[in-house]
Amino acid sequence: MKTFFKYYLCAFIAITAVVSCSDEDDTVTSPNEISITEEILKLVNEHRQSQGLSALEMNTTAEELAVDHTRYMISQGDISHDNFSSRSGVLNEKENATGTAENVASFYPDAASVVQGWLNSEGHRRNIEGNFTHTGIAALKDDQGRYYYTQIFYR
Known about the structure:
155 residues, 4 strands, globular
């Protein structure tokens, strides 16, 4: 009887540990990445509104393109606008975009610092303040826990 009880106790503990770890991993990783992109959108839109511009709306196609490009930059270990014309073409085709732009960055620790960095750069600020209606944002961490960012704009 003791062996039977020990077997089930060990099995219960093992199952509880597996379920707990996988649930905890999901709540730690995903919400952080979602919340930082939402914060970037909030800060960008606050800046746009302070300039008398309309707020940008999130777009699924642009967001998917931003995620893909951010993963690419992480794989390269460097920021770039490589293949931007392809991303722009997808937006033209799928969303009838008539104008596109893109901001990228890396290693900023949070939303406020990356948005401030973009606003301090004339070209990036021009994109944020541009004649755009929609955006897609990605903020993903590399293996060392450093963020890479892509924000795509279109109208």
